[in-house]
Amino acid sequence: MSLKIEDYALLGDCETAALVGRDGSIDWLCLPRFDSSACFAALLGGREHGRWLITTTDQAARISRHYRDDTLILETDFETADGAVTLVDFMPPRGKTSDVVRMIVGRRGRVAMHTELILRFDYGSLVPWVTRMEDGGLRAISGPDMVVVRTPVRLRGKDFTTIGEFTVSAGQTVPFVLTYSASHLSPPGPIDAQKALVDSETFWRHWISRCTSAGEWSADVRRSLITLKALTYRPTGGIVAAPTTSLPEQLGGPRNWDYRFCWLRDATFTLLALMNSGYYEEARSWQAWLLRAVAGEPSQVQIMYGLLGERRLIEWEVPWLPGYEGSKPVRIGNAAATQLQLDVFGEVMDAFCQGRNGKVAVEEHAWAVQRALLDHLGTVWDQPDEGIWEVRSGRQQFTYSKMMAWVAFDRAIKGAEDFGLEGPVEHWRALRGTIHEEICSHAFDPKIGAFVQSYGSKNLDASLLLIPAVGFLPPDDPRVRSTIAAIEQHLLADGLVRRYDTADTRDGLPPGEGVFLACSFWLVDSLLAIGRHEEAQQLFERLLALRNDVGLLSEEYDPQTKRLIGNFPQALSHIALVNTAHNLTRLEKPVRQRSGREVASG
User: Fold this and answer.
1) Mean pLDDT throughout 538-543?
2) Do 401 and 341 touch, CB atoms closer than 8 A?
3) Could you count the other beta carbons within 10 Å of the beta carbon of residue 416?
4) pTM, entire model
5) Can you tell me the distance from the alpha carbon of 164 to that of 52, in angstroms, rounded to the nearest whole number?
6) Which of 26, 93, 389, 501 is the most interior residue, by most CB within 10 Å?
């Protein structure tokens, strides 16, 4: 059985990622890309679905762990009565192959250790053919996939499992290196584990050295930025929402989705987090990925894409995996890719607007693509859609979708006024005014005293905390303040924010999920915007305390069980953390930059 979600830490090489538990077991690894099939899938089942365990044989050992400062190098310390060792886990930044390096370093006395390697390709379903090579390494092949494992430890096979026992003494280092390659190629050569460690540490510390200050929360921001860097597919600049699939939003429930893709809804949040932290190169790469992804016929724009911009993300269910703690189904692919979500048009327009404001270089043809998107949006903005939360119950007139359509035309006007970009500005002004008037007339319920989730609804929605952030209304507007108050009254669970009430909202799924961590950070931003600074800081510090022992956040949190839930680690949660930290500490705040009351420079 897998561990609690918060008991996992992240390893990554900027093209894929692994989750390793505090027990020393790698329970999730997809090779060679984030969205490839997993060769270790115990996270969503049991050990029989693939894992790689390295641990002490002493079950009474004391275990602690941490990342080396400003790196993604994980150190797990095992303390026993006979001695102490440190398990050093990392994935070197991708070269020609993908490597997982595990080094056991003796610190005191002698410690008996055990390793158990269970490779199961295709999400835990395929047992590979394993042979020993001339250099002593093991080669495992299944169809297109090949893994080579090299170590001085004598490994042997037992019941389709590779095992080994060894002892580590003080001053001794025992390396293991797992390398992936396509099976039709020659086996990849060995790497020097110690040199790879030095190179990896240098890579991460050099990268994070560019990070701007976030005051007292600088260390927290750096850890979140390292996490975001690890979730970035370096060849294209695309950022996956999470490296996992089907970690549940409700333990034992069906709200289990594949997040190993890139969402347009995160575009502006991501760009501001990167720019304000000093990462303009990464911001340019993300913006370039965004432009390539949406290029083409505007009516075919999707809400999410693959790492290269792939569009066919066909969803299917894995019958042989029982799911995390029995949470079924396990889904591969994501059917929401085919939904209509009008908010993405506003996200794309806003991302390019913020990029120009921040002096991020924009490709020459970007404005032509934006103009085409605007022309199409002008014909569909008044249609119902599935909304930011990707409901599976049919289309509705979602308020947030309409508001982001307003954002699209507002940013187009700003592009013409601030940068001399050509277009039918008066037509855009008219559309902007029409949309604004319609939202204020149809989405604000005076009896509730709040903007509601959709036209005619009585339900609230946490996405509407972003009304002042995107500039639709100023934070001192009474309707904004009363909407924030209504969300505080009706959508909080243990002081944290739910996206909406799943019992009252028709979303096509059984009710029940945790609080949404990004929405809780948005509440911090809203409280800051209306002058409730002390409450905002208290909530922010509480959210920081929800991170696990190595500083990672999932998508959601269950206040009843006090556990992280949902896919892990979640990019949007860490993006929100970074932006909120800057809102608390910077004169130029992301929440004001986006609304147009303040811009970044760099």
Assistant:
1) 98
2) yes
3) 17
4) 0.96
5) 12
6) 26
Q: Is the pLDDT of residue 454 over 80?
A: yes
What number of residues does the chain have? 602
DSSP for 513-578?
--EEHHHHHHHHHHHHHTT-HHHHHHHHHHHHHTS-TTS---SEEETTTTEEESSSS-HHHHHHHH
> Within 13 Å, how many C-alpha atoms sit on residue 485's CB side?
12
- Give pairs for 318-321: CB < 8 Å, separation 24+: 318/44, 318/123, 320/45, 320/49, 320/123, 320/124, 320/125, 321/41, 321/44, 321/45, 321/49, 321/123, 321/124
- Tokens 């609804």, residue located: 457
Give the amino acid at 11. Answer: L
Work out the number of other CB atoms within 10 angstroms of the CB of residue 222.
19
3-state secondary structure of 509: coil
Mean pLDDT, the chain, whole residue set: 95
User: Please, is 475 exposed, middle or buried when counting C-beta atoms within 10 Å of its C-beta (0-12, 13-18, 19+)?
Assistant: buried
Residue 278 corresponds to which tokens in the numbers above?
Answer: 């000093």
Burial of 567 (0-12, 13-18, 19+ CB in 10 A): buried
**Whether the Cβ atoms of residue 47 and residue 28 lie closer than 8 Å to each other:** no
CA distance 106 to 168: 6
**Tokens 């790698």 correspond to what residue?**
26
Buried-exposed string 325-339: b where 16+ CB fall within 10 A, e elsewhere:
eebbbbbbbbebbeb
Do residues 99 and 178 lie in contact, with contact meaning Cβ atoms separated by under 8 Å? yes
Compute the distance between CA of residue 110 and CA of residue 81 in angstroms, rounded to an integer.
9
Structure confidence by residue, pLDDT tens digits, 200-246? 999 999 999 999 999 999 999 999 999 999 999 999 999 999 999 99
Q: Which residue is associated with the tokens 């004598």?
A: 154
Per the structure block, which two tokens stand in for 464?
A: 């509407």
Query: Which residues pair with residue 55 across a beta bridge?
Result: 114
Q: Report the alpha-carbon distance of residue 583 to residue 102 in Å, rounded.
A: 39
Distances, alpha carbon 561 to alpha carbons 327, 503, 524, 567, in Å: 16, 19, 23, 17
Cβ of 446: how many Cβ atoms within 10 Å?
A: 8
Question: What's the CA gap between 538 and 51, in Å, rounded?
Answer: 40
